[in-house]
Amino acid sequence: MASIRDVAKRAGVSIATVSYVLNGSRKVSPELREAVLRAVEEMGYIPNAVAKSLREQRTRTLGIVVPDIGNPFFSALIQAFEACAREQGYRVIVASSEEDGSLEEDALLNLTGRQVEGIALVPTQDLHNPPSKQVPLVVLDRLSRSLDVDAVGVENEASAYLATRFLLEQGHRRILVPASDLRLTNIQERIQGYLRALEERGLKADPSLLVECGRGPLEGVRRRIAEAIQRLQPTAVFPITNRLTLATLRAIRELGLRVPQDLSVIGFDDFEWSHLLDPPLTVVAQPVEALGREACRILLQRVLGLSGQGVYQVRLPCTLEVRGSVGPPRRGA
Length: 333
Hints:
Layout: H1 4-11, H2 15-23, H3 30-43, H4 49-55, E1 61-66, H5 72-87, E2 91-96, H6 101-113, E3 118-121, E4 137-140, E5 150-154, H7 156-169, E6 175-179, H8 185-200, E7 210-212, H9 218-232, E8 236-237, H10 242-254, E9 264-268, H11 272-276, E10 282-285, H12 288-303, E11 313-316, E12 319-321
Parallel strand pairs: 1-2, 1-3, 3-4, 4-5, 5-11, 6-7, 6-8, 8-9, 9-10
Antiparallel strand pairs: 10-12
Helix pairs in contact: 1-2, 1-3, 2-3, 5-12, 7-8, 9-10
Protein name: LacI family transcriptional regulator
GO molecular function, one term: DNA-binding transcription factor activity
Keywords: DNA-binding, Transcription, Transcription regulation
């Protein structure tokens, strides 16, 4: 493998000049710069970024752990986080916990062992202890009630309240709410928003309309929702995650029901496929890019020692994107 000395020899310049060109630390004439870059390309030289980082006692690397990389919400979150980190000269190591607490723990230990400078985490459950007191941590999406830690999430309660109120204004009273895991803080907050909207209208919540579907395979979730629709005969469904939204739409299609003539639907998260449905899907839109970027910004502030002693607790607003999937309840319902 070529070394920096080999590159300098090929280009006919000093080792210092090669370093200046590669690091951009000092101006070099266009002719010398071109000679160095040509030698780098011809010899396949790769600067030893790890060695450079070790000399500076910095790895310029962040870690992010999410429950499911295949979930479009989490993949969009990673993309935004990584873009922000890249703009600041940082790389990102991505890990998936697969909604498994032991895998999450392994991922966190692996990241700290690889000397990442900070970690962003969407936890599988409420955190009680930080993974490492030496590594800055920011919690995303599923915020902790037990741990005083930097956190970035959305206004879950307010967003679910808006969606439920909109359904109530259209005349719906039997609103089915599929939920994933009632132990998760973001799910609890969304349910509180649903309940608040009912209470505001003087309506008593029917506990049977709140259906916990778990975090298992999508087919099992679909079956659970289809059974609830058949048994409970709701006029509207408000699945409170994007994964539950997909399962709900599949269940409705397989039951031979029409949206919104037979059943109104408000989904969670706004992705490209939401616009392509017929009718287009009314959704609660989370600001995914802003979430990822804000988490990265806060984490880098901690890493670079630019933040104070206080804990950041950021909540970003969601919007209700009204399209064609909500109508009045069917007659006789």
